[in-house]
Amino acid sequence: MDIKGRKTAIKYIDFRDVFFQEQFFKRNALTTLPLEYDKENENNNFLWQAGDIVYFQFDENNPYKDLGGFISPNKNNDGIPLVIMISKELGKVREVDKLLEYKIVGHFRYPPPEVD
C-alpha cells in the first residue's frame, strides 16, 4: 500500500496531484512564510509575493482534497492579493478573491531566494 492508500503501485505519478506537490515544496522551497494573511501587517508586499504557491484545505479529514494556487500580481479593492486557481464554483482556472475565505495549509516560494 502506498502513502495514498492505494493497494497497487501506479506506473506514473500524476504531477498535478496536490499531495505530491506539497511534499516537493516542503523539501525544496522557502517554507517560513505565513499561513494567514494579516490585513494590518505592513510587510504583506514582502510576505505575499506574486508567484507564491498556496494550498487551501477544503476537507480537514482528507488532505487529498486540498487545492493549490498562485498569488496573483493583482489585488482586490482592499489591497489583498487575488489567487489564480481552479475555482470550485466555476470548475475552471480563474483569478479569484479567496485568500481570506479558505484555510491556508501551505505557503511556499520556489525557488527559494538565494542568501548571500
Q: Strands across the major sheet, in which order?
A: 4-3-2-1-5
Number of strands: 5
Approximate shape:
globular
- Main sheet record: 5 strands, antiparallel
Order of helices and strands: HHEEEEE
Oligomer: single chain
Total helices: the number is: 2
- What is the CA–CA distance across the termini? 43 Å
Q: What percentage of amino acids are in beta strands?
A: 25-35%
InterPro entries: DUF1287 (IPR009706)
Describe the structure.
This protein is α+β, with helices and mostly antiparallel strands. It starts with 17 loop residues before the first helix and ends in an 8-residue tail after the last strand. The protein has one domain. The protein has a 5-stranded antiparallel sheet with strand order 4-3-2-1-5. The protein is 13% helix and 26% strand. The radius of gyration is 15 Å and the shape is globular. It has 2 helices and 5 strands. The mean pLDDT is 86. InterPro entries: DUF1287.
